[in-house]
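Course assignment 3, question 2. Fill in each field.
Student: A.L.
Task: Predict the tertiary structure for the chain below.
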Amino acid sequence: MRPNVLQLVPSFDQGGSERQAIQLARLLHESGRCRVRLACLSARGVLRAEAEGVGAGEIQEFPLTSFHDANFARQLRGFARFLRANEIDVVQTHDFYTNVFGTLGAWLARTPARLAAKRETAGMRTRAQGFVELQAFRLAHGVVANSDAVARKLSEDGVRGSKIVTVYNGLDAARVSVPTGAGREEILDALGLPRGRRFVTVVANLRHEVKDIPTFLRAAARVRARVAEAAFVVAGEGPLEERLRGLAARLGISDAVFFVGRCTRVAELLHVSDVCVLSSVAEGFSNSILEYMAAARPVVATDVGGAREAVVEGSTGYLVTPGDDETLAARVSALLEEPERARAFGEAGRARVASKFSCEAQLEKSLEIYGALLARKDAASESRRAAAVEDVRRGGV
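Answer field:
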């Protein structure tokens, strides 16, 4: 019998958690091995059309304004009713807000399998939020970590080891596939980038300091001094952009740094990039790294979270210490100066993503977890029923 599975997403904004949740819902639906529903805390966002395209029926919204008002209790009751009415067997959540709301609501509804998620090691939550999330994990039957590094952090924080399971993000290769015949000059013109440059690219939101784009810009200034034709692309949007533009100006590289905003043509951007960078001071498991590697780009990444679980030092790219703009610049410069090595790194990276971080691997691991959780609940229920029957029998003797 196919289980009824609900994926609860925070919103449809362009973010790693949201994209992974929608992708997993699509994979589950297309597999035909379970019945899938999608629900959200906010229906806004550019990924809404993609979510509707999953084909999982109407998307239910449970809008929150706070965890501390009457609306929270009202939405929680509505969510629990929805789970019972639709006989949901598995609820899977994907970030802090859905972990708290979703696991509590699923606990109230007595949903058989409650699966929470953790996607970062540090840097995103306050101590109070961390405490609240730990309580949510206590209500969950399992907690998905997107890297072994995150799994270790969960264990250190007190989550029971038997609850923790690592499921790597899956990468749909089609997301970074460039249409056949697309030329470099044509793509550069479409992206508003100049011809005749060597591009070093970072794809990251500009909403959180944890992405540490200032280190990328300081490294860019060093690279520019060594490789005259180097130029730098920052693909992402957020309130930090103005401050970062000011830093680029103070470093004297404004003419070489291109802030392209939210990029809807990631495949084309990566296709014209020579080196790709992750400069974060904290991560769980970076979707950007997988996209870089799947596009056959060499990677220079800070050694945070699960980065070393993806990047093989000296084979698919290089790992550097967070905040070390000098080493970051040296590694990027070396790859720009040695294009044959850069190409070899890129091809090795593409092969690694295909073998270890595919959508198929993500799907199979997720289905395996659902099956194990539901089987455990069935076994526990059967054990309780048997014990009750035995008690009645003994009482009747």
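Instructor remarks: The first helix runs from residue 16 to 31. The domain at 4-170+359-388 is CATH 3.40.50.2000 (Rossmann fold).
Grade: pending
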